[in-house]
Design goal:
- Strands 3-4-2-1-7-9-10-8 form an eight-stranded mixed β-sheet, with helices on both faces. Strands 20-19-18-17-21-22-23 form a seven-stranded mixed β-sheet. The protein has a six-stranded antiparallel β-sheet with strand order 12-13-11-14-16-15.
- Strand 15 and strand 16 form a beta hairpin.
- The protein has 809 residues and is of the alpha/beta class.
- Helices cover 41% and strands 21% of the residues.
- The longest helix is centred in the first third of the chain and has 24 residues.
- The chain folds into four domains: 177 residues, Acetylglutamate kinase-like (Carbamate kinase, 3-Layer(aba) Sandwich), CATH 3.40.1160.10; 154 residues, VC0802-like; 137 residues, Rossmann fold (3-Layer(aba) Sandwich), CATH 3.40.50; 181 residues, Dihydrodipicolinate Reductase, domain 2.
- It binds NADPH dihydro-nicotinamide-adenine-dinucleotide phosphate and the ligand N[C@@H](CC=O)C(=O)O.
- The site of NADPH dihydro-nicotinamide-adenine-dinucleotide phosphate (NDP) has 33 residues, from helix 16, helix 19 and helix 29.
- Homotetramer.
- One of its GO terms (molecular function) is ATP binding.
């Protein structure tokens, strides 16, 4: 025997009902079928509204009833050929009489409410049975004659001994091919209609399936089955092929409302499996819920979430070591029929937190404050704290038990994304790890966890980029070019969600089209750095990274705010790392404290692995004694190309055109850029150096540094003789000019030097940089990093590498 239950949406329209009929017909070719039906979608709500209107003697009840009747008559006319089989007159006349009675009395008891609510299933099942009987031998059976309950109206308890016997005898005696029964309803000993509570039709199917030996139960609904997460929140959520009853119950309890947990109790007891299937995709296998342990040892089966949670905390020194406090707390809540969803208490016994449905928060606070009135007045208990607008996110899986590292991964993933955890609960079954978080973080949290625990196609990384100049443009081009490769090879989906230059900022939650970022930016809002950060934070996207490709102080001023939100910062802008030592240290500390990387590899040597190499030396316990370096791509290029055949100014201009200089080339020529770089290397090797302590011996006449950039070039031209004499002096001595930075014994210096042919620096061509680290381990022979040290392409590539590093942490 098949027991097939179809929910309200499956019965929601004439076409849906026809689809269900076709399915039932197909099943009936193999075995006898019991069909259990919910009311047509929305009908139970309408009936309860009808009862409320009648109770309130609101004349609108008549219109509600007429609308209900019309909907059912229309469906009947479409689906049933034989009008003589029409029981609707009788049903609706009984319902009208009932409502008149309610309206006259102005009162509707739970018993009467059940009678009204029962009409939905009675009508849908009669309609379906009449429709089907024209094709297959079909019998409508009244569940009230087969399911015996107590008299707790609204949530009646089933008497299984009587019910099982009634069901078995009924189906043994009859040999019909298809039976159609209303779900949700039963009757007490006196034959009065009762209802089985929320999810009642699932329950009816489970009761019948458990009572009939060999029955196979399928719950047909409007979703593909149990999903790994709520598909409305996680686009990559997948149908779970198989799971255990315990897992299904945990997932259902925490929001995955495919199955009402108490409804499956009878099946669990009889160790009988149930399959969830989708009426609108009948070819799919759906989800099989097993009664026995599964061979498949998947650790996390699904992630569930419930929103609208309130957390109440009872706290105070008067609770410590005194038995009975929790008993009183839970008693006070239970007396107000407030359901407790999650409980936490630390071993200090100083606080008990309980999560409840937010709608009950006010009542809960009143109840608990009343219960502890005396203690609160005496001060042994603090006034109750109640936080609303929260959510619970839970990882569920039978095989988490004894598997170390799951909570670590969960909390790590949430923490890296700046998701604050308000409460934690894990039972000793280790089947569920629940966390209470802010309601605004639910989407981000579930997506982060889904990426962390399921083989998703890729991890999504959301970039907020500032700066679309020389380097920024190349970065965007590289990102666009590598998008597919990253997704296929590294399973990373890099999206630029926010983009800004000095004039405009643009955001696109789904990611900007990188082929037309210029148009998007032009259509964007006016740039305001603070607003940019606020907007980026407000989007609250997972795996967000802020990328600074500007040379602006104001943009560097945003880092703290991002790091404090656990949003990593990748910067080629050197201003922050070379600011005061205390700022540098603050940024490093924030990065550590909030688990958000602060990467600035390109601050020294552009795309060369200079800071990373130094970091590896330091973290493995090496000590730096001396650093010697040529750190300016611009100056190396200029002195390599200035041979007296062209003016010095022309060569500097060429370096700028090649994209090697800072936006303001005076920073390069005046030595500031190199001083910043050696300062950063000194700090990364453990020194607490300040910028002003660096000895900078300028080679430019002071007049070059006054006025605008145009003035600078004009002055360079005027000072040609000065540059010519520097060149000639070096040439005569058989040397080459290099702008050298050194750091030793806590002191740093930058300046132009004439290098003789025996020195490593002599053979440094083009725009190359070189860094020589003398350390404990690299003593006689330094560790050398050398290569292209400036240029948009290599710098963008270094930023790209930093982004990938943050994405893979
Ligand atoms: N060139 C190189 O080889 C290397 C460069 N770097 C660093 O890269 C950074 C960028 O250099 P580069 O691309 O050459 O400079 P550009 O001047 O070409 O670009 C700077 C970008 O920053 C934007 N910008 C300016 N102010 C703001 C603001 N308030 N908010 C948002 N965006 C702003 C500019 O906007 P707009 O377009 O509107 O002017 C422009 O898009 C510098 O910090 C430099 O030190 C680091 C290593 C190597
Ligand atoms: N202007 C810089 C570029 C990178 O920092 C240089 O010339 O080296």
């Amino acid at each position: 025997m098949y027991v097939l239950k179809f929910g309200g949406t499956s019965m929601g329209s004439v076409s849906a009902i026809r689809r269900v009929a076709a399915l039932v017909q197909e099943y009936s070719l193999r075995r006898r079928v019991v069909v259990v039906l919910s009311a047509m979608s929305g009908v139970t709500d309408d009936l309860l509204r009808l009862a409320r209107q009648a109770t309130a003697q609101d004349a609108a009840w008549d219109a509600t009833l007429r609308a209900l009747e019309e909907r059912h008559r229309e469906a009947w006319a479409e689906l049933v050929d034989d009008p003589a089989a029409l029981p609707l007159d009788a049903e609706f006349s009984a319902l009208r009489t009932l409502c008149q009675g309610i309206s006259l009395l102005g009162e509707c008891s739970p018993r009467t409410t059940d009678r009204v609510a029962a009409f939905g299933e009675l009508l849908s099942s009669r309609l379906f049975a009449a429709h089907l009987s024209s094709r297959i031998a079909t019998e409508w059976a009244d569940s009230r004659r087969l399911i015996r309950t107590d008299s707790q109206f609204g949530q009646a308890h089933v008497n299984f001994a009587v019910t099982d016997a009634l069901l078995q005898s009924y189906f043994e005696k009859s040999s019909m091919q298809v039976y159609v029964l209303p779900g949700f309803i039963g009757a007490n000993e006196a034959g009065e209609t009762t209802t089985l509570g929320r999810g009642g039709s699932d329950y009816t199917a489970a009761i019948i399936g458990a009572a009939l030996p060999g029955a196979e139960v399928e719950i047909w609904t409007d979703v593909p089955g149990m999903m790994t997460a709520d598909p409305r929140l996680v686009p990559g959520a997948r149908t779970i092929a198989a799971l255990s009853f315990q897992e299904a119950m945990e997932l259902s309890h925490f929001g995955a409302k495919v199955l009402y947990p108490p409804a499956v109790q009878p099946l669990m007891k009889k160790q009988r499996a149930v399959r969830i299937r989708n009426t609108f995709a009948p070819e799919a296998e759906g989800t099989l819920i097993h009664a026995q342990a599964l061979a498949d040892k998947t650790i996390i089966r699904g992630i569930s979430s419930i929103t609208g949670i309130a957390l109440i905390s009872l706290e105070g020194s008067g609770m410590v070591g005194i038995p009975g406090f929790s008993h009183r707390l839970f008693g006070a809540l239970a007396r107000r029929l407030i359901n407790v969803i999650l409980i936490t208490q630390a071993s200090s016994e100083h606080t008990i937190c309980v999560a409840i449905d937010g709608s009950a928060a006010d009542a809960a606070v009143r109840a608990v404050e009343e219960e502890f009135r005396v203690e609160i007045r005496e001060g042994s208990i603090e006034p109750l704290q109640c936080e609303t607008g929260l959510a619970i996110v839970a990882l569920v899986g039978d095989h988490m038990k004894n598997h170390t590292g799951i909570s670590g991964r969960k909390f790590g993933a949430l923490g890296r994304n700046g998701i604050n955890i308000r409460g934690i609960a894990q039972g000793s079954s280790e089947r569920n790890i629940s966390t209470v978080i802010g309601g605004a973080d639910v989407r981000k949290a579930i997506n982060v966890l889904h990426e962390a625990f399921f083989e998703t196609e890729y991890k999504q990384v959301n970039l907020f980029i500032a700066g679309t100049g020389n380097v920024g443009k190349r970065l965007l081009a590289q990102l666009a070019q590598q998008q597919q490769w990253l997704q296929q090879r590294l399973r990373l989906q890099l999206r630029v969600v926010g983009l800004a230059n000095s004039r405009r900022m643009a955001f696109a939650e789904g990611g900007l089209d990188l082929a037309r970022w210029e148009e998007s930016l032009a259509e964007g809002e006016l740039m305001d750095v603070r607003a940019y950060r606020e907007k980026a934070i407000a989007l609250n996207l997972r795996n967000a990274v802020f990328v600074d490709v500007t040379a602006q102080e104001a943009v560097a001023g945003l880092y703290e705010g991002f790091l404090e939100r656990s949003i990593p910062v990748v910067a080629c802008n050197k201003i922050a790392a070379s600011a005061s030592f205390s700022r540098y240290e603050t940024l490093k500390n924030l990065s550590r404290e909030y688990g958000a990387p602060f990467f600035f590899e390109t601050n020294v040597g552009a795309g060369l692995p200079v800071i990373g190499t130094l970091g590896d030396l330091m973290s493995s316990g090496d000590q730096v004694h001396r650093i010697e370096a040529v750190l300016s791509g611009t100056l190396n290029y200029v002195f390599n190309h200035y041979d007296g055949s062209r003016p010095f100014a022309a060569v500097v201009r060429e370096a700028q055109e090649q994209g090697y200089t800072e936006p303001d080339p005076r920073l390069d020529l005046g030595g500031t850029d190199v001083a910043r770089k050696i300062l950063i290397l000194a700090r990364e090797s453990g020194a607490t150096l300040e910028f002003d302590a660096i000895r900078n011996t300028p080679f430019l006449p002071a007049s070059c540094m006054q006025g605008s950039i145009d003035d600078f070039y004009r002055e360079l031209e005027k000072q040609e003789a000065h540059f010519r004499s520097l060149l000639e002096e070096a040439r005569t001595a058989g040397k080459r000019l290099k702008y050298v930075a050194t750091f030793e014994d806590g002191k740093a210096a930058v300046g132009l030097q004439a290098i003789d042919p025996q020195h490593d620096f002599y053979h440094l061509y083009g725009k190359d940089n070189v860094v020589r680290f003398f350390t404990n381990r690299y003593n006689g022979q330094p560790l050398v990093v050398k290569g292209a040290g400036a240029g948009a392409e290599v710098t963008a590539s270094g930023i790209f590498a930093d982004i990938i590093k943050t994405a893979r942490t």
